[in-house]
Amino acid sequence: MKNKTIYIDVTQYTQNRLNTGIQRVVNQYLKRAITGNFEIVILYINSSNHFMQLSNSEMQEFLEDVKDYKFKSFKHIDIFESKNQKIFFDIDSVWNSLYKRELLYKQLKENNFKIYNFIYDLIPILFPKLLHEKTKQNFAPYIKAIYKYSDFVFFDSNSAKNDFFKIKKEFNYKKDISSKVVYLGSDIVKPFEKPNDNYIDILSKKYILFVGTIEPRKLQPLLLDAFEELYETYHNLNLVFIGKTGWNIQKFTSYLNTHPLKDKNIFHFENIDDNNLNHFYKNAFLVTYLSIYEGYGLPIAESLNHSNITIVSKNSSTPEVGGDFVDYVTDNSKENLINIIFKYLKNKNMYKNKKNMILKGYKPISWDAFYQSMERNI
After folding, report:
1. Maximum distance among all alpha carbons in the chain?
2. Strand pairing partners for 289?
3. pLDDT, tens digit (0-9, with 9 covering 90-100), for 205-234
4. Do domains 4-186+367-376 and 197-361 have the same CATH topology?
5. Domain edges within the chain
6. How are beta strands 266-269 and 4-9 bridged, if at all?
7. Exposure string for 112-148, b = 16+ CB within 10 A, e = fewer
8. The overall pTM is greater than 0.70
């Protein structure tokens, strides 16, 4: 008999049907939690703020087919009935939920729940101008509800943890909250299959890869600007962006989509599955991940897991994730970025030695290790 019941709200995940970033974490956690040591109750909150339960077997099917799976049944559930030790664990992007956490968490505490959260970053508070208006409006009340009611918070980096407790102090919340930093897994677990025929020609060329949503916080424009200068000397060089188009980025996407090198030397793919993403990582000449700020920076770890030379911005969590295995761009300088790429284009021995150093020295974190660390702290 499992003596702990963990309730997890997946409403946002089942609605947005994404499988990158936060959603990848939710996916990998649930795949293991459903067959783990605790009783897992998967919740969907309907438009009337009533709890519905999804069967664990259906959830397992959904996790393997996030984009297209259609749920067959929901059943009403009274989450306050259980006599087990009860934990409500918010691991998804629940700040956008219609069931506001200030109200929900108050009700949970009144019914003897412990509340656990996973915080990925504090970007909506630290850099509100870079975020979608809906996120800005919803995130601050969500964080305040955590400060007021949460018992335990997981973080994906010490950088995010430090930001959380610094803001807590500024907001003058006194409640003690236990915490644990758990680094994310970097193994894209879908087995290698043949790449899509549409990508085979690109995969055979020398390309710089950038994986990440195109949004103001990410610096795809900086890389494109640098690439244009590099291309003047290296006409066989290509640039590949992988990631959905986000918000407040129309000027850049318009420039990208009408670029004279688009679909010749510059490519952008929005809907890449894990198998093809694996191939793009595996065949990249080098990978860049440039950003104003990160909570973790999962593409950095994924890139290093493929022994790629990886060039990243030096800020927030990136030194935790990349360590000595990445090349850092100081102050997001275009000149610095160009110089780093140039040295690897011109010096084959330096390129080979750096790849070997990463291959022999980098110790990737698996999703299994991520889950086991979580389970030990619940």
Report:
1. 69
2. 312
3. 999 999 999 999 999 999 999 999 999 999
4. yes
5. 4-186+367-376, 197-361
6. unpaired
7. ebbbbbbbbbbbbbeeeebbeeebeebbbebbbbbbb
8. yes
Tokens encoding 285: 């000449």
Query: What top-level class would CATH report for the domain 4-186+367-376?
Result: alpha beta
Lateral strand order in the sheet of 152-155: 75-76, 51-54, 39-45, 4-9, 85-90, 113-119, 152-155, 178-181
Assigned token pair, 189: 């677990």
Copy the structure tokens of residue 140.
Answer: 């601050």
Q: What is the pLDDT of residues 132-154, one digit of tens each?
A: 888 889 999 999 999 999 999 99
| CA–CA separation, 341 and 285 (whole Å) | 10
8 Å CB contact between 28 and 370: yes
Contacts of 219 (CB under 8 A, 6+ apart): 290, 291, 292, 313, 332
State both tokens at 113.
């729940």
Res 1 pLDDT > 50: no
CB of 19 within 8 A of CB of 189? no
CATH tag for 197-361 (out of 3.40.50.2000, 3.20.20.60, 3.40.190.10, 3.40.630.30):
3.40.50.2000
Q: At 43, list the tokens.
A: 């919740």
